[in-house]
Amino acid sequence: xxxxxxxxxxxxxxxxxxxxxxxxxxGAELVWHEDGLPEDTSGVVFPGGFSYGDYxxxxxxxxxxxxxxxxxxxxxxxxxxxxVCNGAQIGSESGLTPGAFTxxxxxxxxxxxxxxxxxxxxxxxxxxxxxxxVIELPIAHGEGRFEVADERLAELEDAxxxxxxxxxxxxxxxxxxxxxxxxxxxxGVLGERDSVAVLMPHPERAAFSDIGPTDGQGVLQGFSE
Amino acid sequence: MTAYTATVTVRLKxxxxxxxxxxxxxxxxRLGFDLADLRSADQFEIDVDASDADAAAERADEMAERLxxxxxxxxxxxxxxxxxx
Lengths: 225, 85
What we know:
The complex is a heterodimer. By secondary structure, chain A is of the alpha/beta class.
């Protein structure tokens, strides 16, 4: 059982993702995007970073690379796929997940810890948590504002496809707790299947007890089944 | 075949927040300029050879759909002119 962590030029959270998965006992390896997706891959991570220098739009170039088509086919067959930060932007740019992640309301790169409320605990990525539970993860992005048409957002909410919302430490979803201006404080969403998910916060940066909180391990456990 | 330049202008849809444009506007106001609003857009000039202007526009349209614009947040328009080959 080996999860493929896809490296593009400019990926920079790829090794962290491999180490964090290994920390929870999930085998993982780096896969250079031009080498194609290994046939026996048990899961896919699009890691954070600045693939292709964020040219055009964050994630736009990587989303059109051939390996994404292979990932799409694998995901359609049920292979779990997680996109984190730049990986989330790749997920939305490729249409694997809905909406878009664009320039923060502040127009600045933001690197801080945020609180997230678990909106749907009935997915592989959130099964380790309870619905309504508050977890703490770091963010580090300049383009993390979730944008989607209002009617589409209503559809996503009705279909329980919102994974996490930014909230305060008590779990209240407020404007003050919204770091980047995301619509309805959305921090992570599901694709067509619940085995496909993206989020802007970094679970792999909150997975080692030696260096801080480990709230991110639960997200990564989506690969452990 | 005729030589054309297809100019693709990609804008944020109305109502989508544009923090970079807001920051730019604020800086212009700090410089003393008086302005009511400011919008930014990306523009791509694409040289293509095509049988006619419609064919050139169609090709540019596909480029916009597939890569240059993100339909979730963008509108775009295409203007085709002949160019000196």
